[in-house]
Design a protein that fits this description.
This is Phospholipase/carboxylesterase/thioesterase domain-containing protein. One of its GO terms (molecular function) is hydrolase activity. It holds the Pfam family Abhydrolase_2. InterPro entries: AB_hydrolase_fold, PLipase/COase/thioEstase. There is one protein chain. The protein is 33% helix and 21% strand. The chain has 255 residues and is of the alpha/beta class. It has a single domain, classed as Rossmann fold. Helix 6 links the parallel strand 9 and strand 10.
Length: 255
């Protein structure tokens, strides 16, 4: 495989002292035009993400694949596994772990902070990884984390597969209270994809998340429905992501 293991950011701690795991990097095979942090799902790690992404025909993208901290997860009855934040049962009344969300969003921002200024940066992820990617996108629009500290990364694209948007209920009022937030929300392209047969994060959460973003003024949201798809990715879906990223980021060789 042509990806290399690096310990960028490895060992940095969140507010509660959870250690982030190893970060894997897939280097661009062509001219480096974009860098995307890709975030794995609950219980997974950056290595499996890097192997999936390494196979994609996007030679101008550098992929950074961090590993979440291992922490007790409420959904699993307190059993510890890799998780970007604590999460209970996925429902309309889901309580958002703002402290955990902020710590992971800051870790991701730190990974992107040293990229060259002429390189476009984005975030993507699957399931819980999609949730933290979308949360980071709302931090970008608002210009701050949930705790009020400034968010300084200039995101250019977001990909969310089989996930949900934390804080979706209050997003619109927050964005509408700031002209600058509304401008940033309108400027960032977002693609969401979800399978109709997802039994882990039900399809309606993907649909609701896309609607909440659009209602809050994110004008470049694309929502892709995959009939019969469960809680996993398929080549057709990844091909759509490839074409979307190539076109939205203006990568060489894209049509």
């Amino acid at each position: 495989m042509s990806y290399s293991r690096q310990s960028m950011g490895s060992g940095s701690s969140s507010a509660r002292g959870y250690e982030f795991g190893r970060t894997y990097v897939v280097r661009p095979k062509g001219k480096h035009q974009a860098t995307i942090v890709w975030l794995h799902g609950l219980g997974d790690n950056g290595s499996s993400s890097s192997q999936l992404l390494e196979s994609l025909p996007l030679p101008n993208i550098k992929w950074i694949c961090p590993t979440a901290p291992s922490r007790p997860v409420s959904l699993l009855g307190g059993f510890p596994c890799t998780a970007w934040f604590d999460v209970g049962e996925i429902s309309e009344d889901l309580h958002d772990d703002i402290e955990g969300l902020d710590a992971s969003a800051a870790h991701i921002a730190n990974l992107l902070s040293t990229e060259p200024t002429d390189v476009k940066v984005g975030i993507g992820g699957f399931s819980m990884g999609a949730a933290i990617a979308l949360y980071s996108t709302t931090c970008y629009a608002l210009g701050r984390y949930g705790n009020g500290l400034p968010y300084t990364i200039n995101l250019r694209a977001t990909v969310g597969l089989s996930g949900w948007l934390p804080g979706w209920r209050s997003l619109r009022s927050k964005i509408e209270s700031s002209n600058e937030a509304a401008r940033r929300a309108a400027s960032i392209p977002v693609i969401l994809a979800h399978g109709t047969s997802d039994d882990v994060v039900p399809y309606r959460f993907g649909e609701t998340s896309a609607q909440a973003l659009a209602m809050a003024g994110f004008r470049q949201v694309m929502f892709k429905q995959y009939e019969g798809l469960g809680h996993y990715t398929v080549p057709k879906e990844m091909n759509e992501v490839v074409h979307w990223l190539a076109s939205r980021l203006g990568l060489e060789g894209s049509r």
